[in-house]
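Sorry to interrupt, but I need a hand with the structure work. Can you supply me with one protein entry, sequence and fold together? No commentary is needed, just the two lines. Leave the record below and I will have a look.
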Amino acid sequence: MKELKSIVAFAAALLMLAASSVFASSHREAPITALDHSADVTDWYAFVSYDNPNNVTFILNVDPLLEPANGPNYFPFDPSVLYQMLIDNNQDGNPDVVFQFRFTTQIRRPNLYTGFIGGLDGIPQITSLSGTGSEGLSLSQTYTVTMVKNGVSTCLNCGQTLYAVPSNVGPATMPNYQALFSQGIYSLGNGISVWAGTADDPFFIDLGAAFDSLNFRSGIGPVLPPSIDADDTHNYAPDAVGGYNVNSIVLEVPITMLTVDGQIHPSSDKQAVIGTYGSTSRNAITVRRSPNPDQNYGAFQQVNREGNPLINELVIGTGFKDRFSMDFPVNDSQFANFVLNPALGAVFSSAGIPVAPGPRNDLLILAQYEAPICPGCGPSDLGPIADLLRLNTGIPPTPVGSQKRLGFLVGDSAGYPNGRRPVDDVFDISARAVAGILVNPVTYGTALGDGVQTKTEGFNNSFPYVMPANNGRNSAHTGPGQAGCTGQPGGICPVQ
């Protein structure tokens, strides 16, 4: 009864919060991206590669909640969007290394009613991204990869055509989608690998409960029973993102391409630590003169960005989210009060959950270079307040099978907030950070969470670290009353 009262008070308090944020990882988190899906950065990942401690993998996911069956065009990348991965390597908050991705779309069969077809009208099934076997790919996309460093642009794929992997239409059209997925892996030389296409969305959360004023399932959240916390990777609530796709760009590069001096450093050295974020941008001017194609002019203007997965969603007020999305991390001091005095902390407190008092300097670990992620950083190395996902490249990857979903909070130092891996449960970690677990894990370490601990579809533990897109013909979504909650009786997800 005490726990039930706490849940009711928690939901009621949130309803009274005028400028509230909800738990999500950039899935339409700001008004501007709710109207511009293809430029919406849904998630940003940066981690030392599982099978090579000398490399770092970045994943930029865009365009949220893609229904696998939603033809006829499905979900191509937007050729008018500049997709970027940005790295700060000298603690000043400004990007020093930038990787840029641009896409080109070709409609090869303009009279065809759909973008993808196979096994009909003399068109063979789709078995290849190019050449023989690709005849059914009416909508085909290629892309370029450019590195900008010290003001110099270098084409990383010149002389090599890169094809984006399309959505998984279904078995009649694409009888071996795993083969198409694997064909999208390209080696660019010098230890660089890239993959781009539609993939299973690796994010996991009970979105329905979160957006219904944190109306969690009975007995599941916001305070998790000890029996389902810690290393438990069963799902006790529906993963609302399960079965949906997302557009992914994955890049793996040597650490030596990222550090300020081109060297590999031990974890105790500040030069081992990089600050990262992903962004999307559009030209300043777009002219539409129907029925002619759009024309884009002027400098690129940022539309959306993500560093840490909790900042824009959990900390920034709704009235400031667009400004946050379009501004640069180096200017984030204007949002500092949202970090130092998070409104959601007051909501937790009103629900009877112990919350650390303000100002919350402990949360500055997400906005500045400091220990424990940067143990070699001193007071002069903090840098400006900036939402960057910081990664200590000197900390080796945790072996697959030993990774902890709660990451750094439970001793898995290779997990969030030291970078972010797909397996990291950023919902639970972020909630506990707001409560104050970084201040005192005993006093403020309430086991907060939504009961979604993992992906039903599983994880890919090697490059490109994303799973193949869900099947358009045969896909299903996990929801209340349906199978998909491995920790519940019969595997059925609870409704209440």
